[in-house]
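Retry 2 of 3 after timeout on previous attempt. Resubmitting structure tokens to design endpoint.
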């Protein structure tokens, strides 16, 4: 029960951060369109059309052979293990 309450509050905080970035920088020009309730496989190409908190463009690359996700900006690339 406590986990559900914590999850809901965390989701709300993430939504508020997302809204602040969109209000400040607007929707990215190269944002991909989504399909509600669709299940598609992970793409083999980088996903673009996203901003970080500072308004920099971000691309997301899934490296399944390395079990990693790469978050790339103009200045750096961060890799996260799955």
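Retry 2 succeeded. Sequence:
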């Amino acid at each position: 029960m406590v986990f559900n309450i914590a999850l809901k509050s965390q989701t709300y905080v993430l939504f508020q951060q997302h809204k602040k970035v969109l209000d400040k920088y607007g929707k990215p020009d190269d944002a991909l369109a989504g399909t509600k309730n669709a299940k598609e496989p992970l793409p083999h190409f980088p996903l673009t059309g996203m901003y970080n908190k500072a308004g920099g463009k971000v691309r997301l690359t899934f490296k399944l052979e390395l079990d990693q996700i790469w978050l790339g900006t103009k200045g750096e690339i961060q890799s996260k293990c799955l």
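Attempt log closed. Helices lie at 2-25.
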